[in-house]
Amino acid sequence: MTILEILSWAGNVLKSTNATRSVPQNARLDAQVLLSHVLGVNSAYLFTHGDETLTTNNIETFQRLIERRSRHEPVAYLTQTKAFFGRDFFVNNHVLIPRPDTEVLIEEAKKAITPTSTVIDIGTGSGAIAITLALETTMPTIAIDISLDAITVAKHNAKTLGAKLAIIQGNLFEPITKINPPPSDHFVVVANLPYLTPWQWEALDPDVKTYEPKLALVGGADGLALYDKLCEQLRSYIHEQSRQGRRIMIDLFIEIDQSQKAAAPALIKSHFPTAQLSVTLDLAKKERIVRAVIR
Does domain 84-294 have CATH number 3.40.50.150? Predict the structure, then answer.
């Protein structure tokens, strides 16, 4: 089979799968990405060499990937790569696939970072947020995740991309409370924690529900349980440091679902009544990032 012939075959297979999906995917693009991955070429090559005959091994490898994709397995897991903020990150089913909308979190957090800041990424997963901020700002950065499997992925990405940062296993902000004295008096805390409700998770597209880790998606009955716990830890930490004569300032950035645009700021206010709050829209003009300036 030639490149164009097998792309046509793959497109038809995936289109038939898409017919039953609530959210249709781009079958042709998926096929191109997967064939490019198999051949180790860019997508332009596929069309400038469309008459090229493929080896039996390449055909069989590609057909296996298409079969897996037809069962809704995400393309990023099949290629083990996802682009984020202009860099390619290794991903597997132990971590959430980075989304383009999360790049807004990077842009907003960068605005708060000063020469004396320490960046702390809570629930780092693949490390996409922490590594990107470390590379973009060269500021001291600490990434934390409760999952050892996620820590392994994040460390792999940091090494591959040449990022210098600390990657620690722990429960939310807890590891930072054990560092004495504090690494900084100004923390830029970024968190893309699980924020879906169980009902939202049930309604997810099969690509996400079946393959991406539920631990990284569901955040309790209202989706905000982990953010509540994080704010509780931050408040306790600030009070303890104040008791020791230190003033800690925090710029907190969290990613939310649009449905939480009122509930999430209210939650933060319940912990920090004097915090200055703002909400930033994502690429689809939906409320996505909540910033709390805690002084």
Answer: yes
